[in-house]
Amino acid sequence: MCMLKELVVKNRSYRRFHEEVRIERGTLRQLVELARLSSSGANLQSLKYLLSAEPEKNARIFTTLGWAGYLKDWDGPVERERPSAYIVMLFDSAIAKTCFWDHGIAAQSIMLGAVEQGLGGCMFGNVNRDELRRVLDLDERFEILMVLALGKPKEEVRLVPLPPDGDIRYYRDADGMHYVPKRSLEEIILG
Amino acid sequence: MCMLKELVVKNRSYRRFHEEVRIERGTLRQLVELARLSSSGANLQSLKYLLSAEPEKNARIFTTLGWAGYLKDWDGPVERERPSAYIVMLFDSAIAKTCFWDHGIAAQSIMLGAVEQGLGGCMFGNVNRDELRRVLDLDERFEILMVLALGKPKEEVRLVPLPPDGDIRYYRDADGMHYVPKRSLEEIILG
Question: Which residues form a coiled coil (chains A, B) (predicted)?
Fold first, then answer.
């Protein structure tokens, strides 16, 4: 499974970007197309999307995001290292009562597609939803599920085994290398 | 994005299989490895997995699944057209309070990996969880999130535009061809 596994491994949560590398709206549409073609619980397709590739709008979305909860001494990327684009994933309550696990499926399709294009990003559930709703002037029928931040990654992320104490918190070393402890296959497959 | 898009398009919900084509436990482990390497909310990694590639166990899992809700005149695949293997995805409540959207991310990684290997399958949320818990002799700390049924697909699935009345229910024609109406990109991208 080399091809896909390569994408899956490369598809890390990136939080620092070459912000000067712009992302075209057409690229965002290609990524949403991957989500559109992915499976949906009971085929209800209750997910909707809002795109931002404009610096001004990006800046307003940026202020609503909570960055890297485990990096207490880091408030998120500085100017010029921020995402070049965002895909805001919404749940359309006029279509269904639940989106099942469609949001995860769609997000993974989008992020793998981004990595295939030499991009990368981060999925945000830690969002100031009231503020983002104002920024996007969003109708009440839409629930903000997550924000996908995208850009040309400017940091390296390495997967490492869990430490003996089992701490799953990611961390950075003095050089800014980002490490993510992952549970072993033996730990997650039962029996 | 040809490579990934090809996998995404091929990755349909398949419900009839060449059951005689067995799936090795090692293949299931490779697929779970793709889920293990995928991103996890707050990196908590609360998902656990149970594998079945044995005909007897498969038969017991099969009886707990609700097949194709929209195909009222079809009770699911007949013998010899049933899945060759299952991956049962569990939430480990000893690790976290929620799995966020990890289940969708993991399921998409697994299914795309299966398609890359010439396999395919279906994600089940419609599961008799009490019965499956008995079948698997599952500890209370584990919540059954979904069942991934896998096999060598024996049916063709085509994506089609939504009909004028907007009905999203999938259907089959007289030849058993399975059709899945998908909303347009214009409908799901707002603004």
Answer: none
Mean pLDDT on A14-21: 98
Question: Which of the 8 DSSP states describes residue A38?
Answer: S
> How many helices (H) and strands (E) in chain B?
6, 7
Residue B118: pLDDT over 50: yes
Note whether B91 contacts A: Cβ–Cβ < 8 A.
no
B41-90: pLDDT as tens digits: 999 999 999 999 999 999 999 999 999 889 999 999 999 999 999 999 99
The ipTM value here is: 0.97
Whole-model pTM? 0.97
Residues in chain B within 8 Å Cβ distance of A8: 34, 37-38, 109
Chain B residues within 8 A of A37 when measuring between CB atoms? 5, 8-9, 159, 182
What is the average pLDDT across B125-151? 98
Sign of CA dihedral B124, B130, B136, B138: positive
A61 touches chain B (CB under 8 A): no
CA atoms within 13 A on the CB side of B68: 18
Q: What are the structural domains, with CATH classification, of chain A?
A: 4-155 (3.40.109.10), 156-191 (2.20.180.10)
What residues contact A126, with CB distance under 8 A and at least 6 apart? A65, A66, A69
CA distance B167 to chain A (A): 9
